[in-house]
Amino acid sequence: MLHFPxxxxxxxxxxxxxxSDGYHNLExxxxxxxxxxxxxxxxxxxxxxxxxxxxxxxxxxxxQNLVWKAFELIQQQYPEQVAxxxxxxxxxxxxxxxxxxxxxxxxxxxxxxxxxFALELSDAQLADLAFQLGxxxxxxxxxxxQLAKGRGxxxxxxxxxxSPYSIQVICPKLxxxxxxxxxKLTPKPAPFxxxxxxxxxxxxxxxxxxxxxxxxxxxxxxxxATIKENLYKAGAIYASMSGSGSALYGIFEEGKRMDIASDExxxxxxxx
Length: 272
Description:
272 residues, alpha+beta, Ribosomal Protein S5, domain 2, Alpha-Beta Plaits, 2 domains, 29% strand
């Protein structure tokens, strides 16, 4: 059985409060990018369950991967229904870029196992399990535009449709420290209520919707600020960093884009 975990972008990202548990409360819109995706396959086996990863290299122990953790979670919850399987993850979504690839893999693994083993879990039940994997994993259970609050797990569907536009995603090959970025932020109330985004023409997003991580991260990585500036120079209606970076995206009128090619410094994706 095959599933195809997809990426996401953040439209607006406000860090509104430092919580007593050490986390932060956020406000953002998660928007799925179904065109940029990994591949996830499970097959039956008479031996022990295994995880094989190909495509982009993922450093570290595979058993720390969210795909494997999702399998272990389902196995623990439903030991009588879950049989040994071979798992193959083909990585294509850039990692550590703010595109949610790892979270998508974990959430889609829950969805896949639910179907493969006929567990008949609802989306709400799967979202509760997904939250045990990571704060933004529940989004990928629903995988539609969602207003997210709390740590990212408090989701409300939002009617946002970007299909009339072209989206260009640029993923520089550099590591951005989320922890360092958080340490430089001063939480404050969101200046714009994202649930009202449909009252604001996309041509006005530039002046009203921001990513709170950008100032600190751009100060440490000026090349990212340059990419955003160049997206606007190329005609983007709206441009932003996704999550805590390092990916940036531009929303263009259909058929338009910035003239840039993938190279050893950055990967470039274009969707229309």
